């Protein structure tokens, strides 16, 4: 037996806790989710259910801030929504207006200090801020503010906004507009005071944000699935560069800057958003089915069964199966609880962490030629392990079909991505990737096929109104490739 000490797959007391240096599951991390209510007596309860529906967008922390007359009631904590809030906590959050947040920390850093909404006191009163996304030039603005005397309490980009507003001689709304105009990046902002709620989306619409109504109340959310949960109706998406102002006189539609090139994150359609959400006039489940169908037309594989890597690829696998006539089968099963178990598994399972999260259904795949549908390949380690898993279960062939173009470039707008040197598609050809992951064949969805499949309201626009910089290096804003700026969600 070797004396070499093997590095564990986690650094905390339990599996997948803390800063994992080796990610056994090698997936793109969700961004964050925001939820806002204006004008409802049960604002906190609505926010709780809304955030619960957005839980897939962030599992590290959750928080709700409620405005009641001349003061705030707020609570934040680490963990899932259901762990952070209980009946007594929600009972203490009285007020008609609220903003809430679920967070997955990436570039902004973790811990309770950075949990949102962030709450501040300044000359104009109290302000609470919640955001989803990343401000590319936040480090530059932060350095400027620190040099002029600002003292920051967090490492979150979101705090930069509060400092810019507090230092402005203008009223709150105009100060907020000026702050937004200083920022470069992709973001959805909610700012709450004692008498106002401001909602804004970046000039390119990179991060999703939707408005709904529940009776006389206005609801705002990262995804429409949260509106369905509370019984609210969908009104429309918040437009790029738009600022909506809600006060005692109702809703005021304004903007802080003209709309620029529409560029909603393509990965929302491919992977992040829930399949029961709608974005830009397109249902996510239907769009993913079309991705599978288009991919089948672009690259048909003669096989016995089609299976999808759960959960995000199941819709696409169904679409591929329907288009080809090859039966769809549940060849892979996901265990959703491994990330939070307090039982340390054996060393063997530590070294093959994917087996704790995915299992092949041996009686389904044994002796079969399998088409495995997945949404993306990042470093390639997970794809290699899943291919191996299927072959160990008896699959005679495994053909991998990916419902996105090759992921070659880092994201600067809110997705936690590794350095481009760690992205397998930026360093290898498709054939080299196929060899690396051990597949019998490998195919990616084309750019044109992705735009066709999304079929959103902006299909006729440039690139279908999508940001596909992670695939083609065409970023909709100016970005700094010097290595000093943060990649991922800085909120």
Automatic annotation (TrEMBL):
TM region positions: none
Name the UniProt record assigns to this protein: Amidophosphoribosyltransferase
Domain spans labelled Glutamine amidotransferase type-2: 32-249
GO terms, biological process: 'de novo' IMP biosynthetic process; purine nucleobase biosynthetic process
Binding site for Mg(2+): 312, 374-375
Catalyses which reaction(s): 5-phospho-beta-D-ribosylamine + L-glutamate + diphosphate = 5-phospho-alpha-D-ribose 1-diphosphate + L-glutamine + H2O
MF-aspect GO terms: 4 iron, 4 sulfur cluster binding; amidophosphoribosyltransferase activity; magnesium ion binding
UniProt keyword annotation of Iron-sulfur present: yes
Key words, A-Z: 4Fe-4S, Glutamine amidotransferase, Glycosyltransferase, Iron, Iron-sulfur, Magnesium, Metal-binding, Purine biosynthesis, Transferase
Enzyme class: transferase
């Amino acid at each position: 037996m070797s004396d070499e000490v093997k590095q564990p797959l986690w650094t905390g007391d339990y599996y997948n806790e803390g800063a994992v240096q080796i990610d056994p599951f090698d997936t793109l991390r969700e961004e964050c989710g925001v939820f806002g209510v204006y004008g409802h007596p049960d604002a906190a309860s609505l926010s709780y259910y809304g955030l619960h529906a957005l839980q897939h967008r962030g599992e590290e922390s959750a928080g709700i801030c409620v405005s009641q007359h001349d003061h705030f009631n707020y609570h934040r904590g680490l963990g899932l929504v259901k762990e952070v809030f209980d009946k007594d906590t929600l009972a203490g959050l009285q007020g008609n207006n609220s903003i809430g947040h679920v967070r997955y920390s990436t570039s902004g850093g973790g811990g309770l200090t950075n949990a949102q909404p962030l709450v501040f006191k300044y000359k104009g009163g109290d302000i609470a801020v919640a955001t989803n996304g990343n401000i590319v030039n936040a480090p530059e603005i932060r350095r400027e503010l620190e040099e002029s005397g600002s003292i920051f309490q967090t490492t979150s980009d979101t705090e930069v906004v509060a400092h810019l507003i507090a230092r402005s001689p203008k009223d709150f709304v105009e100060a907020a507009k000026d702050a937004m105009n200083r920022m470069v990046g992709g973001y959805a902002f909610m700012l709450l005071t004692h008498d106002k709620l401001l909602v804004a989306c970046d000039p390119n619409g990179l991060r999703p944000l939707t408005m709904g109504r529940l009776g006389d109340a206005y609801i705002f959310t990262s995804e429409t699935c949260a509106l369905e949960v509370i019984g609210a109706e969908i009104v429309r998406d918040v437009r790029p560069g738009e600022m909506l102002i809600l006060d005692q006189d109702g809703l005021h539609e304004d903007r802080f800057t003209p709309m620029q090139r529409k560029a909603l994150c393509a990965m929302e359609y491919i992977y992040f958003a829930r399949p029961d959400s709608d974005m830009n006039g397109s249902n996510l489940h239907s769009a993913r089915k079309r991705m599978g169908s288009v991919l089948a037309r672009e690259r048909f594989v003669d096989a016995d069964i089609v299976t999808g890597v759960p959960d995000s690829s199941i819709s696409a696998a169904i679409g591929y199966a329907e288009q080809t006539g090859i039966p769809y089968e549940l060849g892979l099963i996901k265990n959703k609880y491994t990330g939070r178990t307090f039982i340390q598994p054996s060393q063997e399972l530590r070294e093959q962490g994917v087996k704790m999260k995915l299992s092949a259904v041996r009686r389904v795949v044994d002796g079969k030629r399998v088409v495995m549908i997945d949404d993306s390949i990042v470093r390639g380690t997970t794809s290699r392990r899943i291919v191996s898993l299927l072959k160990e279960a008896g699959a005679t062939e495994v053909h991998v079909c990916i419902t996105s173009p090759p992921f070659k470039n880092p994201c600067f707008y809110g997705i936690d991505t590794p350095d481009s040197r760690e992205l397998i598609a930026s360093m290898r050809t498709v054939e080299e990737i196929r060899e690396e992951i051990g597949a019998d064949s490998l195919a990616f969805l084309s750019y044109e096929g992705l735009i066709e499949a999304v079929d959103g309201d902006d299909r006729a626009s440039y690139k279908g109104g999508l940001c596909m910089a992670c695939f083609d290096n065409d970023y909709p804003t100016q970005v700094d490739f010097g290595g000093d700026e943060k990649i991922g969600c800085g909120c």
